[in-house]
Design a protein that fits this description.
There is one protein chain. With about 375 residues, the chain is of the alpha+beta class. The protein has helices spanning about 20-60, 65-80, 85-95, 130-140, 165-175, 270-275, 300-305, 345-355; strands at about 100, 105-110, 145, 155-160, 180-190, 195-200, 205-210, 215-220, 225, 230, 245-250, 255-260, 320-330, 340, 360, 370. Strands 1, 2, 3, 4, 5, 6, 11, 12, 13 and 14 form a ten-stranded mixed beta sheet that branches. Strand 9 and strand 10 form a beta hairpin. The longest helix is centred in the N-terminal third of the chain and has 45 residues, at about 20-60. The N and C termini lie far apart (about 70 Å). Belongs to the pseudouridine synthase RluA family. It holds the Pfam family PseudoU_synth_2. It catalyses: a uridine in tRNA = a pseudouridine in tRNA; a uridine in mRNA = a pseudouridine in mRNA; uridine in 5S rRNA = pseudouridine in 5S rRNA.
């Protein structure tokens, strides 16, 4: 006797009689209904398994064999991992990198490529996740944290937040009145000469004429050379006083690790002073390496070779500017100065090692000692 078919419930080929037929009808209906109930679940699991296998195969195919392409993927992975995630994921990542927390302040390590404030085209920014971060740190009833200052989108490092708005205003006033000591680390293309000094050149914003009109900050010197003599010129009313102390911490023939201490806080001050004042642009500064155009930074062959890249891939190099230290005066119940140090991001540390630059060791007070970069 043939088994019933599920194509038509209750259908059977041959049997001993009507009673057998009715029995087969009941059995086949039960069998087919059970199979129909389980089939979609099994099919769904099978489809998910096939999709996972397909993704794994595609990932293996995408893994480049070319060392330059591998290096590009490494840079992209280091610098873009938090730019397109859910706000909850970003808040969780920030909470894992807390540098300091007390009843007044929370100090975070700002990742690369994330703007502090929102704006046109901005999908995710630090200010968006402050309410979530506050709840992670202080429970679901916590009020949102408040920004005390800002860092550029491409700059990494120490960022101070406050629990209360009035505390945030106090810290903002400290920044405005230059009571806060800030120290940045930058990798530069070429080596500043002399190896330590002060750049005191006003800065203003200008429109750049070209194929694509845009605005940049630039120098507005108070003096110019006239027949071999230094002549004072009239100060542009739009120019801002800008003063930067700098010191070379380590150098090779074509690059340097430089510590920068901005005395003033003009927009893009450090990048402009390094590029246009000292002719040593920050590695990965695709905006200020060339005044006339917006284009990937042109790098010496030696640097490209050490970084494992070609010039055509230089656009993937991130800005190597890091807010390394911050010293805040006494605030509220805290009677002593707060000294904050933020470790380098992975891409920055890897570039130091590739370029053969030494990173000084630091004690708890921030004093520098010569030392070699440890692998991370």
């Amino acid at each position: 006797m043939a088994a019933p078919s599920c194509g038509a419930p209750g259908a059977w080929v041959r049997g001993a009689g009507p009673r057998s037929g009715s029995l087969f009808t009941l059995v086949s209906q039960a069998f087919c209904s059970t199979a129909a109930a389980t089939r979609p679940l099994n099919a769904q699991r099978l489809a998910e398994r096939l999709r996972a296998q397909q993704r794994e195969q595609e990932t293996k195919k995408r893994e480049p064999t070319n060392p330059i392409q591998r290096r590009v993927q490494e840079l992209v992975r280091f610098t873009r991992q938090l730019q397109r995630v859910h706000p909850n994921v970003l808040a969780k990542a920030l909470s894992r990198g807390i540098l300091h927390q007390d009843k007044d302040l929370v100090v975070i390590s700002k990742p690369y490529g994330l703007p502090v404030h929102g704006g046109p085209g901005v999908q995710l920014c630090i200010s968006d996740v402050l309410p979530i971060l506050a709840k992670i740190l202080n429970g679901h009833k916590a009020e949102p944290l408040h920004l005390c200052h800002r860092l550029d989108k491409e700059t990494t490092g120490v960022m101070v937040l406050a629990w209360e708005k009035d505390v945030a205003h106090q810290v903002q006033e400290m920044f405005r009145t230059r009571q806060v000591t800030k120290k940045y680390w930058a990798i530069t293309v070429r080596v500043p000469m002399p190896s330590a000094g002060v750049v005191d050149i006003p800065i203003l914003e200008k429109e750049v004429q070209g194929q694509k009109q845009h605005h940049k900050m630039t120098l507005s010197p108070s003096y110019r050379m006239d027949n071999g003599k230094m002549v004072k010129v009239r100060t542009n009313r739009s120019a801002h006083v800008a003063v930067t102390q700098y010191q070379v911490l380590s150098s090779t023939l074509s690059s340097a690790l430089v510590e920068l201490q901005p005395v003033t806080g003009v927009k893009h001050q450090l990048r402009v002073h390094l590029s246009f004042g000292l002719d040593c642009p920050v590695l990965g500064d695709h905006k200020y390496s060339d005044w006339n155009r917006l284009a990937p930074q042109k790098l010496p062959v030696g640097i490209l070779k050490k970084l494992g890249l070609k010039q055509s891939k230089a656009r993937h190099i991130p800005l190597h500017l890091h807010a390394h230290q911050l010293m805040l005066p006494a605030l509220g119940s805290r009677k002593e100065e707060l000294h904050l140090v933020c470790r380098l991001p992975r891409f920055f540390a890897h570039s130091l090692r590739r370029l053969g630059l030494e990173m000084p060791n630091q004690d708890q007070n921030g004093d520098l000692e010569a030392g070699h970069l440890r692998a991370q």
